[in-house]
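Hi Prof. W.,

I finally got the DUF3747 domain-containing protein prediction working! I wasn't sure whether to trim anything, so I left the full sequence exactly as given:
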Amino acid sequence: MKSSLKLKLTALATTLVASFGAMAPAAASLFDQTEVRQDDFIAVASPVGQTGNHQLLIVEQISNSRDCWSESGSRPTLVDPLLLNFNFSGICGRSTDSNGYSIRAGGEDLGLQYRLKIVKEDGDMLLMGVPDRRSNPSLEIGRAYGENSGFTKIVLNSGWRFAKRNYQGRTLGHVYLTNDLTLAQITGAAPIDPDPIKPPHPIDPDPVISFPDIRGDIYASDIEEAVKIGFIAGFSEDNTFRPRTALTREQLVSMVLEGLKTVPGANINVPTNASARPYADVNASRWSAAKIQWARDNNIVSGYPDGTFRPAQTVTRAEMMAVLRRASEYGKSIQGLTPTLDEKQLPQNFADTTGHWADTLVDQMSGYCGVASSLNETGNRFAPDTPALRNYAAAATLRALNCVNDETIDAIR
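And this is what came out:
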């Protein structure tokens, strides 16, 4: 009986291994990815005993009941893995090897081609994608910006972000370090922009870089200008901008209102405190409540039919366009101009907005100084339901403000 059962289990295991081995080349078609809040994850160079070596540890903050880690210092940023001090089940997620994390690029799983490794080089600790075949190039995914013997934060390079593996609509626990570019584009074997449609604004080939994690980012110059103007800022604790972090609805409101304050002649006085709860799920004491209330009262934002605003929910690219359109109309109105947003350039023909609720809106904002543009400024996809990332949010808001200001100057002339 036991022998028969053992044979059956062995046969089943062999079948499963063979099945998954056969599926490996088609991994890109088997799995998709689910976008996540970047601040809920951290990549850590974790010491391996007393060897002086480090390995990759990825920690996820699943519940806010207790912090899973704390950070201190900069260049490098030291990490205290607090999850080691309590039963973190249901609170924190921990991935320590290739079973828990892998690389994904351009929609293709690279777990069978690359392994993740912490490499020490020139006084720094680099997170590298090391190829199984020597003929393939290595990939630098992030670095610590310094060397340390303990737990150390790895800052992901521009273009890289965290995501979760998705199978047939179900989000799995496996963590991706993902990049929208293909492997060939990342390694320089293929052009990054094969599409003839170019960004509406020329890219500074040699921008002044204030944040190490925006080097090489297509929106680097826009980010620098946006930070200089003052409607968005970096993170002082580690001097990063975190360009690939998704924006929440309340963060978008704050950014847009700060941007409107820079419009010449604007006299925008947002109260420090909200007079009442602006939405059912926004307490008057919340840090963003007064801004949300002011934006609502001035028709810049609106809530959901159920009476909620969902302030901490990730804002989509389409939702951001709706807010930027209303903000642009408001910006023109306070200048005494007609709030209509006239077309400034030919709108881009997006392949994925037809039938979407924001179809007309995205088309309008594309024609309005290119506020709406293709995902990562390449191809013809707008990706309306994809989370709005900080880099594009800074660029799109800057374009909207510049367009409003240009119209004001033209009216004066």
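The chain has nine helices and 14 strands. Does that look reasonable to you?

Thanks,
D.
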